[in-house]
Amino acid sequence: MNQLQKIDELNDGAEAQRIAAKQKPTCRSCDAALDHTFVDLGMSPLVQSFVPPDKLDEAEPFLPLRVLLCPECKLVQLRSYVSPDNIFTEYAYFSSYSTSWVAHAKAFCEMAAERFSLGPNSFVVEIASNDGYLLQHFLPMGVPVLGVEPAANVAEAAKAKSIPVLVDFFGEATAGKVAKDRGTADLIVGNNVFAHVPDINDFCAGLKLLLAEDGVISLEFPHLEKLMDELQYDTIYHEHFSYYSLMTAERVLARHGLRVFDVEELSTHGGSLRLFACHVDSKKHSRLAKVDEVLNRELAAGYDDFDVYVEFQNSVQASKRKLLQLLSRLKDDGKSIVGYGAPGKGNTLLNYCGIGTDFLEFCVDRNPYKQGLYTPGTHIPIRPVDDIRARKPDYVFILPWNLKDEIIAQMSDVFDWGGKFIVPVPEPKIIGPEDLG
Ligand SMILES: [Zn+2]
User: Fold this and answer.
1) CA of 189 to the centre of ligand 1 (A)
2) How far, in whole angstroms, is CA 39 from its chain's centroid?
3) Residue of 378, 317, 395, 316 lying closest to 342 (CA atoms)
4) Domain holding 289: CATH number?
C-alpha cells in the first residue's frame, strides 16, 4: 500500500472515528457500556508509521490514545479506530531478528512437545506465526505444523523454511477452514497476538472451533499487573487493543467454553503471562495451583474494584513530569542526549511526553528497515547504532527499557567516554558505571 492509499484508509478511519464518537463505546468482550477512562495519553500517530525523508512535510494522522475500563468484566481496552488490514498486512517486524526471542520460542517448543506428548500424529497451529521463528523448532521433531499469518511478507520468510502458512487473520471462519482441511489442533499457540486482536470474541470462537478434544491453547501476552506496578504506559499503542490481567483473560475465554488450567509468569516484554487453556469439559487437564495463586494476588491488589485503576492516570502524569524535568535540566546544563532504539513503545512515550529533536539529537536502531526513517509524530532521525560511537553523547536514552541490561552490556564503551544511560520508566533514572553490580 502506498502512502496516499494509506492516508485515504486513515481518513476512512477518521470517518469511522467520528461515527464511533457519537455511539457509546462498549466492551469488546462483554458488551457493557464503557464509561470509565483508565488512562488518556492524548492524540498519537500509529507507532509503526515511521516517516520517510520525502514525507516529512506532509500531515500525519493522529488518533486518540485513550484507554477505557469495562465496569463489568474489568477488561482494560482501547477502542479500535484503524482497520487491522492497515496495520498487520505488511509488517516490518521479523521475529527472528531477536536472538533471545528465538531462544525463548525454542525452549517453549521443547517443553510443549514433552509435556503434551506431541509427535508425528499431532497437529500444531501457531496464530501470528510471523517468519516461522517458533514453528521451525517443531520440524526436526517431525510434528506437523501450520502457521496463520496475515502479513504476506513475513509469511514468505516462513515458507522459505518449509513451514506451511495460511496468509489470513485468525477468527472463527479461518479456524473452520483449517479444521475442515487439516483437522483439529492438539496445540494452538498465540504469542503476543491475544492483546492485538480487535474482535476477541471472534478470535476465541476460532480457538474453540479449532481445538482438539483434549488439546491445549497456549497464549502469551503482557500482564496488566506489570503495566500498572511498573508504570509501563508506553506499552499502550493503537495496535495493542486489550490489556489483560489473568482474571480478565479467564473471563474472556470462559465466555467461549474454554478453561485456564495453568499459568506461567515470564520476564518477556516487561513481564508477560503464558496461560494454558483447554475445553471447559476436558478431563485431561486439571487446574494447577499457580492459577489461583496469580488470581488471588490480583484480587488482593484490587483488580476487581475501581480505585486501583483510577490511581494509574495520576502516576503516569507524575512520571511524565519527572522525565521532562530531568531532560530539561540536562539540556540546560549543555549535555547531549541520543536515543537508543526506536521500538513501538518508544513512540508512545516520545509523543505523550513531547520529546523531539529538542531533547534527542537522533535515535539509533539495529533494524536496517528503520534506519534513514524518522520517528512518527516527533520526527527524530533514526540512524545505525555506530553513530552513537561517532557522536559520543553525554547520555544514551534507552527507549526499549525491557532490554536495558542487554543494551548496557552491548554499549558499555559509552562509559569509556564518560557517557551514562537514562531509563525513562517507572521513574526516570540515570545509570552510570557505579550503578552496575
Ligand atoms: Zn466487559
Assistant:
1) 24
2) 17
3) 378
4) 3.40.50.150
CB contact at 8 A, 217 and 224: no
| In-domain check, residue 57 | no
Same domain, 348 and 227: no
Top-confidence residue, 185 or 271: 185
Prediction pTM value: 0.88
Q: Report CA(148)–ligand 1 centroid distance (Å).
A: 27
**Best mean pLDDT range from 32-36, 275-279, 339-343:** 275-279
Pair 260, 354 in one domain: no
CA of 277 to the centre of ligand 1 (A): 20
How many Cα atoms within 13 Å fall on the side-chain side of residue 246? Answer: 25
Identify the residue whose cell numbers are 478511519. Answer: 13
Task: Calculate how far, in angstroms, residue 267's C-alpha sits from the geometric centre of ligand 1.
Answer: 27
Q: Is 257 helix (H, G, I), strand (E, B) or coil?
A: coil
Domain limits at 333?
308-435
Instruction: Measure 29 CA to ligand 1 centroid, in angstroms.
Output: 5
Residues 328 and 406 placed together within one structural domain of the fold: yes
CB of 430 closer than 8 Å to CB of 333: no
